[in-house]
Design a protein that fits this description.
Elements lengths: L2 E3 L2 H9 L6 E3 L17 E3 L7 H13 L5 E3 L1 H7 L3 E5 L9 H11 L5 E5 L4 H14 L3 H25 L4 E9 L2 E3 L4 H7 L2 E3 L9 E3 L1 H5 L5 E4 L6 H5 L2 H7 L6 H4 L3 E4 L12 H12 L5 H6 L4 E5 L3 E2 L3
Length: about 325
């Protein structure tokens, strides 16, 4: 079996299912687990993601206006690898190579009967279903079932601890982009609920919501998790001035009570794969650090708490 994965999340799914040795090609963004780093990369981006969030946003919008794909797919390399399965997505042209590109590549460049497995997650249930679907297609059903059992146990552990503590729900907003400010939607509101919170402004399955300053002034979150899509912590830190300027942080309870956090948005929250469970645990810690000191230790490299003046509490 030869598998090509064109999504970071699907690469993580394949590895979670015990099939990392069957991967023959990945996307340019696939970086976890590190054991797959040597594999050939079939995609590249037309956007420079090392810049500031406003310039990245403008570049993406310009490409979409002109109907030019944000990503390129190396057709010749795909033909050379000649995979049996290609895992891609049919949800967001900003997130990865489009389904149409992959389908055209199969029709024009592959002689084999390569099967496309297309994922389209909008909710937590969709994520679990996608993992189950991949497991069935790749004939590792038991591995998919085992993952779900373990995920359920970790989720139930969080819920039980919060229930036993009888703590009130926290009003939470997660910030998915910095300029413009976008609130995380899709599966994130469900994650917030599991972690003992109430999602502000967005509902399950909603797309990320673009918010101006006046809209942000009308809310008063108790917990703020800033995790820009695709940004590692260092890139988010470089835009602290943008965060300070674009949100009314001084008025928020989250700031006054030291409940504002930066989280690695590249690794967590925005990848609909196995580490969504880690992301739920991170949310639970941010909402109720006193209940989950063990999670602080586990994710210490991936979370930074902000303090007075919106400066880094530690690094």
């Amino acid at each position: 079996m030869k598998i090509v994965s064109l999504l970071p999340s699907s690469t993580e799914i394949v590895c979670q299912l015990g099939l990392s040795d069957k991967l023959v090609g990945i996307s340019h963004e696939c970086d976890h687990p590190t054991s797959i780093a040597h594999l050939p990369r079939l995609t590249s981006s037309r956007v420079d993601y090392s810049g500031k969030s406003d310039s990245i946003h403008q570049s993406v919008m310009e490409l979409l206006k002109t109907s030019v794909s944000v990503y390129d797919l190396n057709m010749e390399l795909l033909a050379e690898l000649n995979p049996d399965f290609i895992i891609t997505q049919d949800l967001c042209d900003v997130c990865a190579v489009s389904f149409d590109q992959v389908q055209a590549a199969c029709n024009d460049y592959l002689d084999s009967n390569a099967k496309i497995i297309s994922l389209k997650p909008k909710t937590l249930e969709n994520i679990w279903s996608d993992i189950d679907h991949v497991a069935k297609e790749l004939n590792v059903v038991s591995a998919g079932s085992n993952f779900k059992v373990q995920a359920n146990q970790r989720i139930e552990s969080i819920q039980n601890k919060i229930k036993q503590a009888q703590v009130p729900r926290k009003q939470i907003i997660t910030i998915e982009w910095l300029d413009p400010i976008m609130a995380g939607g899709m599966w994130v509101p469900e994650m917030i609920e599991i972690a003992g919170g109430e999602a502000l402004l967005v509902k399950e399955g909603d797309l990320a919501l673009t918010l101006d300053y006046s809209a942000l002034e009308k809310i008063d979150p108790e917990v703020v998790v800033i995790k820009p899509c695709g940004f590692k912590l260092d890139q988010t830190i470089r835009e602290l001035d943008v965060i300070r300027e674009n949100i009314p942080w001084k008025n928020w309870r989250a700031y006054k009570n030291n409940k504002m956090f930066l989280v690695d948005g590249n690794a967590y929250f925005n990848r609909p794969g196995p580490r969504i469970v880690d992301s739920i645990e991170i949310l639970a810690y941010c909402a109720f650090p006193e209940l989950f000191p063990d999670l602080k230790n586990r994710f210490s490299d991936d979370i930074i708490q902000l303090q007075e003046g919106m400066e880094l509490a530690s690094r």
